[in-house]
Amino acid sequence: MPASGLKCPICNVRKPSRACPARNDFICSACCGQHREETIRCPLSCEHLREARKREPLRDLDPSTLPHRDIVLSQEYLERNARLGYFLGEALWLAARAEPACVDEDMREALGALIQTYRTLQSGLVYETRLANPYAAGIASRVRARIAELEERLREHPEVPKPRDADILGMLVFFQRTEYQVANGRRYGRSFLDVLRQNHQPQEAPEEPGESLLV
After folding, report:
1. pLDDT-derived band of residue 142, with 50, 70 and 90 as boundaries?
2. Is the per-residue pLDDT at 185 higher than 80?
3. For the chain, first and last CA: distance in Å?
C-alpha cells in the first residue's frame, strides 16, 4: 500500500488505493475506472480489470448492420465446426500474443482482412488483403501461416478431411461477430482478447497446428 498522505498520481486529489500494474504505481479507484483502457494500457492480468469485465454488458447487435450478413451461422453449423473454431481461436490468440501492444481494434482489422482474403478465395482467386496497420497485419499473417501449417500437416493424414475454405471463412465471421459483441469501444479495449485468452489459450506448450483436428 502507498504511504499515508500521498495523492493519486493521476488526479492529484484522491488517496491512491489500487495497485496499477500498467503504471507500476498506486492510483485511486475513480481514476482506475475513468482511465481504464482509455489512457492506461491495462494488462489482462490486472485484477481490477478482470473484476470490471464481469460487469461489462454485451452489445445488442443489429444483424442488418453487421458485415458479411449473408453468411448464416446456425447452431448446427457451429457445432459441426467446433474443432475448427477452437483451432482458429487458438491461432488468433497466439498471433495476438506475439503483438503485446495490440488491442481489439487491431483484431477487428485483422479479422476483416482474413475474411476478405477467404471471400476472394471463394471466387477462385488467390489474393491476400494487405494492411497498413502493422499490428493487424502481423496478426493476420500469423493466422494465415498457422492455417497453412495445418493444411500441410493434414496432407500427412489423408483420412482426416481438410477444412473447406468456406468453413474457415464462416468461423472467421463467427469470431468477427464475437468481437463486435464484446468490444467495449475503449481506446485500448481488449475485451475480445480476454475472451480468446479465457477460451483458447493453450494450457501447456502450444500443440502442433491442427493437433485437435486429428483426434
Report:
1. very high
2. yes
3. 50
Q: What is the pLDDT of residues 151-171, one digit of tens each?
A: 999 988 888 888 999 999 999
Please answer whether residues 90 and 195 qualify as being in contact, where contact means their C-beta atoms are separated by less than 8 angstroms.
Answer: no
* Residue 132 half-sphere exposure toward CB, CA atoms < 13 A: 0
Phi, psi of 40, rounded to the nearest 5 degrees: -115, 125
d(C-alpha 73, C-alpha 94), whole Å? 24
Tell me the C-alpha distance between 44 and 186, whole Å: 14
Q: How far apart are CA 32 and CA 9, in angstroms?
A: 11
Tell me, what's the pLDDT at 215? Answer: 38
How many Å apart are CA 85 and CA 210, to the nearest integer? 11
CA distance 109 to 25: 33
Digit-coded pLDDT (tens) for 50-86: 999 999 888 888 888 889 999 999 999 999 999 999 9
**Cα angle vertex 61, ends 36, 31, to 5°?**
10
Contacts made by residues 92-95, CB under 8 angstroms, sequence distance 24+: 92/139, 92/143, 92/175, 92/196, 92/200, 93/193, 93/196, 93/197, 93/200, 93/201, 94/142, 94/146, 94/202, 94/206, 95/138, 95/139, 95/140, 95/142, 95/143, 95/146
Read off the pTM. Answer: 0.88
The alpha carbon dihedral of 70, 114, 44, 24 has a sign of negative
Residue type, 66: L
